[in-house]
Design brief:
The protein is α/β, with parallel strands linked by helices. About 35% of the residues lie in helices and about 25% in strands. The chain has a 6-stranded mixed β-sheet, with helices on both faces. Strands 1-2-3-5-4 form a 5-stranded mixed β-barrel. About 5% of the residues have low confidence. It binds guanosine-5'-triphosphate and zinc ion. It is an enzyme of class 3 (hydrolase). Belongs to the TRAFAC class YlqF/YawG GTPase family. RsgA subfamily.
Amino acid sequence: MAKRNLSRRQNWRIQKIQDERAARADRRAERAEESLVGGDLGSEQPGLVIAHFGVQVDVEATSGELAGQIRRCYRRANLPALVTGDRVVWRPDNQQGGVIVAQQERQTELCRPDQRGQLKPVAANVDRLIIVFAPLPTPYTNLIDRYLVAAEQADIEPLLVMNKSDLLKTSPNPELLQWLDDYSRLGYRTLLLSAGEGDGLDNLRAELKDHTSVFVGQSGVGKSSLINALLPGQDLRVGALSESTGKGTHTTTTAKLFHFPAGGDLIDSPGIREFGLTHISHDELLEGFIEFRPFLGHCRFRDCQHLHEPGCALLQAVEAGDISAIRMSSYRHILSTLAN
Ligand SMILES: Nc1nc2c(ncn2[C@@H]2O[C@H](COP(=O)(O)OP(=O)(O)OP(=O)(O)O)[C@@H](O)[C@H]2O)c(=O)[nH]1
Ligand SMILES: [Zn+2]
């Protein structure tokens, strides 16, 4: 009890500090705008948030004579917090900065729990989740399915990329290829390629074009290698950017947006690479297994848990071969790990 009170008090204090910091930022944005009245602020124009530093964001001008320029901007007091990938309307000032005056509606949101366990958006308008895996380290079906459920929940189209195809030349693995094929028969896009040897990278470039993507996957599968191959010469040391506040400097990890030379954008940060299942309900989990959808609502019992109940439409579909036993057991495993 005492412990809980303490942590509630701590949470309250953290929240208070954050609120005060946001209020200070709002005042600064207002002052920036006020001190520039009388035409010193340029005209309203569209922009894209490409990095986020607490109270300020870097905005890239997306059209007009400033197109391609990056400006560090404050946001107007009435605007909600912005994240990398947000599309905004902003006005340049005469000192290489600017003020954001409006936020465009988000198409998608990638969310993660913050230190207090509350879901917070970390990137906006991502429309491709690149799920990377490889023959080595050995993939866990379960992990891929978790990513797929998360993608379905966030309404972001997933792409399954099996990297290190070169390893299959020396140690063939028909089972793994069959597995990839099973996913593509479910309707998912899949690619087999090698970041190391450059095989199949053009297919990936074509998939990334016209999309805003994030890369996820377990450690060692080759996400950095792939990103480096696609973004030659970019400094990908994201995170650990310092932000100056009234009380000295504190470090934040920020997501950054990069443009692929062949088209399309990447949003990347260590936190985003860890994107996964957060708080989802039993129903959302079921919906996340796309081949289950036609059978949902057809069980004999309304509250069927699809474990061993008679008249379960999902179990019958497994029997009939319409749902694979592997995906069914993967669903059960994920269900057992969901917080109630
Ligand atoms: N054989 C082979 N090795 C590869 C390939 N791509 C990456 N690797 C190797 O796999 C290892 C891990 O690659 P990384 O790019 O660091 O993997 P990552 O997914 O970014 O790992 P984390 O940073 O830990 O998340 C490195 O030793 C790479 O050289 C490939 O196509 N073929
Ligand atoms: Zn059932």
